[in-house]
Amino acid sequence: MDKSLIAAFITAAFTLAASSAAAQGATEGPDLSKVKVRLGPLLMSPTISLSNIGIDENVFNEAPDKDPKRDFTATVTPTTDLWLRFGPSWITANIKEDIVWYQKYSTERAVNNSYKVGWRVPLSRLSIATNFGYLSARERVGPEIDARAPRKELYYSGVIEVRALTRTFAGVTAQRNTLTYDSNSTFEGINLNDELSHTTTGAGFVVRQQLTTLTTLNLSAIRSQDQFAVNPIRDSISDTANASVTFDARAALRGSAAFGYRDFTPSSPALSKFQSWTTAADLTYVLFGSTRFGGHATRDIEYSYDVNTPYYVQSGVDGSIAQQLFGPFDIVARAGIRRLEYTTRAGALVPEPNRTDYERTYGGGVGLHMNNDLRFGVNVDHVERTSQIAARQYNNLRIGTALTYGF
């Protein structure tokens, strides 16, 4: 997607908000204490991170008997959050770029760009929210594909809600997401564009209940359809029902937790259905202002690059504990596990039918806060994947430093 088109979209979104929003009250905007730059009505919070500055012991995630390759690596990530106020509405945007560098293996170098724009207009009885996102990346996707395959993602979503009661909103939502791999992207001899490029469209109903000023309950029922550009045997329809709770960033408990049910029906009778529960949680709890607990949990289906095992159920949990030691020093410990349960296509001959792979991670680090906007850290992380297929197993150790600075 041409950058001029992205700029034109952002300009149009800002103009649309300016002409549509009426001054009927205010909505909560950004945390002003964290805003670093003010240019009239435009607020910005730029940061830059230098991460993974160190040694990658297994650059290509190769099996132990394949002589894993070692290299020095570093990642530079400039990020800017933006807010623009128009009457009762806020335009939000995020611009992010990852510059990944390897000293020896130049094939692993990459520049990943991400753009996000959101707009919400709360009127007296009506609330309108839209989101747009674009990603151009050459990085690993999840725990299955070890190649840094070039891909692009473009998504749109929107919600229109009507106030039913004082704190209750009901409405409709629609979304569209297009994932496209480069036509020459391959992994294990399989063309990723042929197998994974697809468009997801969905629509449904939503109910939002404001439980407290810091807590929101969300209910949704959505039907979505996946249509693959090259391999229609993978086409499917999903019906999902979800309940989630969102906690405001100002609370001690922050983030969201969702639990739901998914009825996944492939169009091909050779592929099995998936009818089971799903979950997605990303929570942080701060205790006494000095101890931070973080946790993630997920369970849902993901498409596999191999049409003989067309999808897998990915479930996992990970957590971290960060403790302020004394003065500017802190320490963090983290660990997690993910399980990939594959479903074999009817009639397909594979080495290990309906196999299950595991990925385990653990690590930690120490950090030095030089001031409120600058942190230096040293990290050690170990990743291990086990599988019934020997070629899919690997171990990796990363030792490096990280520097984060907020302007």
Fold blueprint:
Elements: H1 3-20, E1 37-39, E2 42-56, E3 71-86, E4 89-102, E5 110-122, E6 126-141, E7 145-163, E8 168-181, E9 186-187, E10 190-191, H2 192-196, E11 198-210, E12 215-228, E13 236-247, E14 253-266, E15 274-287, E16 291-303, E17 311-324, E18 329-343, E19 356-371, E20 374-386, E21 394-406
Antiparallel strand pairs: 1-2, 2-3, 2-21, 3-4, 4-5, 5-6, 6-7, 7-8, 8-11, 9-10, 11-12, 12-13, 13-14, 14-15, 15-16, 16-17, 17-18, 18-19, 19-20, 20-21
Any descriptors?
mainly beta, Maltoporin, Chain A, 18-stranded antiparallel beta barrel, two-stranded antiparallel sheet, 2 helices, globular
Q: Could you please describe the fold and organization of this structure?
A:
This protein is mainly beta and 407 residues long. It has a single domain (3-406), classed as Maltoporin, Chain A. It has 2 helices and 21 strands. It has helices spanning 3-20, 192-196, and strands at 37-39, 42-56, 71-86, 89-102, 110-122, 126-141, 145-163, 168-181, 186-187, 190-191, 198-210, 215-228, 236-247, 253-266, 274-287, 291-303, 311-324, 329-343, 356-371, 374-386, 394-406. The strands form 2 sheets. It has an 18-stranded antiparallel β-barrel. Strands 9-10 form a two-stranded antiparallel ribbon. A hairpin with a 7-residue loop joins strand 20 (374-386) and strand 21 (394-406). The longest helix is centred in the N-terminal third of the chain and has 18 residues, at 3-20. The protein starts with a helix and ends with a strand.
